[in-house]
Batch of 3 targets.
Target 1
Amino acid sequence: MSYVIIGNSTAAVGAVEGIRKYDIETPIVIISDEPYHTYSRPLISYYLGGKVAEENMYYRSRDFYEKNKVKPILGIKAKSVDFDKKEVVLQDESKIQYSKLLIATGGKPFIPPLEGLDKKNVFNFIKFDDVKEIEKVAVKGSRAVVVGASFSGLKAVEALVQRGVNVTVIDIMDRIMPRVFDETASSIALKTLREHGVEVLLKTTVEKIIGGENAEGVILKDGRELPCNFIILAMGVRCNTDLVKDTKLKINRGIVVDDRMRTNIPDVYAAGDAAEGYNFIEGRNMEIAIIPNAYRQGETAGENMAGKERLFNKGFIMNSMPLLGLSIISAGLSESGEGIRVKAIYKNRENTYKKFYIRDKKLVGYLLINDIDRAGIYTDLIRREVDISLFEDRLGEEGFGFVSLPKEMRKERMLGG
């Protein structure tokens, strides 16, 4: 018997630790096309910005595999899975047998068809190798175009600014981070970006990448030409299901799993950005590409692979990022809809913004900019589905905090319930 995990990031680590809670003997094999010890993907922007050294990128200690009796097969890609024979075929044609399999292949960048994509100096921004290549050209005074004002795009922008690169960021939408930000939040972030010399072009996109062997600029949809030394594509991430495409594994946008992280094939599990887990706020399965979710899904999968009965049914979207001095945290819903009430507090002088989404006496989402001290409490209210009707009027107000919660809830939190 052996456990096989395809993937070596957060969900894989969660799975190893979930398995080892209950099974300390059965061998675990981890397969990854990346050659690195498990590392923290959100840190790639900090590495590029010079804030984190390579030795501090690792998600677990250097003896993680040894301590957990894991055989890592790194730097070689899984080519296919034969679910009937219960074996994973690697790119070198070697075969790995499994009794329980976890697919945790993560996400992959969304790249639309675009003329000039094959030129050098056109990069994605998702893996350690991406930023290792970018740092070779991102020298002080160089010019970069970042396509996509998404979470990852803005983290790339921040890192480039810290390296002294002149940056233009482009997005087809009318505001930055459109899935999370409204116009007010976008205007706050835009002001910060411009104060740091970043040129932001909205409601347009790249039509063509120009240059010879190397990218030398882009032509926008409106005909403008922007010269640059390199380009970063950050137009979003999709579930990486390439390995199991056209197999009998059920896939929608991601691999479909139940609340035990089981797929439709016996003894095959999926977790992390490759999976479509249950979002309890939206009441449906969907991709929830965030680190805490990936870990908990992986851990749940691992526990179930080891023979326990564990559920993960409290998934929801959360994002936390500093952006050139701005502190930004969001969780849950980020847009209004039927039955949703919105409370927003914008203080121009303090440059703070808080927005809350409330449904059926429950907090179902929030966005905080530059005043994030109570984020843990708000997240807890969402996860526990607390009736907030007794203190809704104080939500986000000065002085709101632990003491504002009902006595029974305070007691429960103090006892760690």
Target 2
Amino acid sequence: MTATDTQRAIDAVWRIESPRLIAGLARIVRDVGLAEEFAQDALVAALETWPDDGVPDNPGAWLMAAAKRRAIDRLRREQMQLRKHDAIVHELEDALQQAAAAGEAALDDPFGDDLLRLVFTACHPVLSTEARVALTLRLLGGLTTDEIARAFLVPEPTVAQRIVRAKRTLADKGVPFEVPAGNALGLRLASVLEVIYLIFNEGYSATAGEDWMRPALCEDAMRLGRVLAGLMPDEPEVHALLALMEIQASRTPARTDADGAPVLLLDQNRTRWDRLLIRRGLAGLARAEKLGGAHGPYALQAAIAACHARASAAQETDWPRIAALYARLAEVLPSPVVELNRAVAVAMASGPEAGLAIADALERSARLAGYHLLPAVRGDLLAKLGRNAEARAAFEQAAELTRNQRERTLLLERARACAD
């Protein structure tokens, strides 16, 4: 194996193993920041050792053993004499001794519970949304600070500060490293699902920049969703969110043309949709419904996505059912964005005038002031009604509001088409 091959192997192992490593260490040291530092120490050890000795048969177990040894050395070196640090050292030593007695496999015990604790800690509501997203991608996605910064088009120091402050906040607030129980579980799970879907959405429709999509972020979000579904198999909304992401991601190959320009849903070549992702998504939705979650917010959104996935051609789409699902979604998840989407569905089911009435009501309420998709939807509906001058003004307003260059180009093209 060449040095390059070894480096690639280390990168791949780190991406897979680092969440379990941090989770396992956090359970012992009860500090996510400290756990990540010890995990990073293990990575340094791998970078020093593996190029000469080769990648071990069980790299995850090797990394965990190295992290524990380095943690013991470091805690002793820093002469942490407090009782809690002594206890940590003793626990780490016990774990290593037990592993030595049982063989290496003991170090690779299932980390499901620890991983679940890490998920809920990284997505704790005490953190800002931006901090939860950054910390989740760092601790559970295995992304570097630079990778997160590039994904969200923000400076690397900004992301680094968010992560540092997030870890400090968790420590200062004394956030326990545990899975919430009882009524708290529902609220905390909603926070976790929100973070994962935010990551997916930023990849599916980039807020800013030159590219309309960032598929790598979608992949990261789906990977987190699959991990969570494996850890919480009886939670319908977890399966529903994963189903929603998989069905939406199935359209990725058809959402842009050869030049990277956006292709709208009704114009997409549906033979290019990923049928495997659709099958997985439909199966996940069925599981969520079987678990009694048919009317959860993510299940309803997945059901809407499934209506599109089941239509082999745009004209075969069941728009009345989609409009009804959006009406139900507006009841369980009241939101002006949901209402805007309902306007589109109603327009397709009952005509553009009916949809425009909903969109105009949103405009009068100013609940979506500054949101570029409101004038974009109004422009589309006005154009269908032949009110071209108003449509052009709406598209131009939408183009001014969006921060995505690809989307701005599309909107200006539609504005020019209204003038022809």
Target 3
Amino acid sequence: MPDQQRATLWRHVQRWRGVVIIGVMGAITLWLAAVGQLVLYIHPRYILFTVIMSAIAVAAAVLALASPRQHDDEAVAPPSRRSRAVSLAAAGLAVAFTVGMVLIPPATLSTATAEQREINATASDDAETLAAASVADAETVAAFTVREWSTVLRQTSDLAFFDDKPVTALLGFVTADADDPENTFYVSRFAVTCCAVDAQPLGVPVHLPGWAEQYPPDTWVQVSGAFESNPSRTGTQPVVLVPTVVEVVDQPSEPYLF
């Protein structure tokens, strides 16, 4: 390619790469919002703001590409080979990220992330939750999620506390207990404060020997049963959920706890 054509092509790349990438990423964000998948990445309270900002980005990108203008970089000398290499590498990474957003289907966080971030490492010590659970009626207890149960289990192992508190249809995905992976798994959910980056795994231990043969990791289940002393020899949880019913279910439309 002649030097003049190469210089012209380089100027076009420099001018429009950012605009195109921002426009495409904005459009993808709008598409995720339209199909209800944006909640897999950010807290619902930020969706409206994100959609507005993405719409502005797409509109600005379209206007920038469509508007004729005079450029003041025609007389600028071509950059050095090293500068071009660095710029192309940066542009390549941005394009790869953008293409990945298009080609890779939206997916929720899974067992792999839960194991990396350690289940219940950030479970709450909220004394008010424990106090409220101690006097909760049957209907309230039946509505407890992984968040409430993990908070309670973190603060008490008194089996008498759980006598009149059966677990009903506790929803979450299956993650192995690292201390006793053959006999115990966690019913897990991610708690999200802002976005998927800060998501923290919470879980309730379930003792069911041979569980993996019926419920592989990442399977979404609803578990009913009662809390009992942990019969595991290697498990570190003093109290576990002993199930009476484990039902495989579809992943909910909002898999995270907010």
